[in-house]
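Backbone Fold Data
Goal — fold tokens
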Amino acid sequence: MIKKLYKIPISVLVVIYTKQSSVLLLHRADRKNYWQSVTGSIEGQETLLETAKREVYEETGIDTDMYSLQDWNLNHQYEIYQHWRHRYEPNTTHNTEHIFGLQIPSETPIRLSPSEHIEYEWVKINDAKKRVFSWTNVIALEKLQEI
């Protein structure tokens, strides 16, 4: 019998941005009009930094070792959307998300993972705050405006 592997309810959100104050937004493949920054749950014994590096690479093709990935020492707990709860152990209702930032040059190529995202756009911070579906993503973008 194969044991189902559940997601761990600890995740990262990585705001990818340029010096010109553009933010990378990704359009989720599984939800129409769900735009977001890079996100993902820790796997196994990964650290939060290792998770952030892996998720950025998986979702965008960006090697974070070429840039400065910053832990913003900011986290939020939120209720997991009902339509995603089946990914977690039964009775798991909340996730803790840790926020990171990654500044890259504007000409950096982006390679999407088609199973996760169908398109990407570079947008200004205020426009990004209006488009992301997650309130934690809005707070992360507000934090970027303070930097």
Notes: The chain has three helices and seven strands. The helical segments are 48-60, 125-131, 135-146. The chain has one domain: 10-146. The CA atoms of residues 29 and 114 lie 7 Å apart.
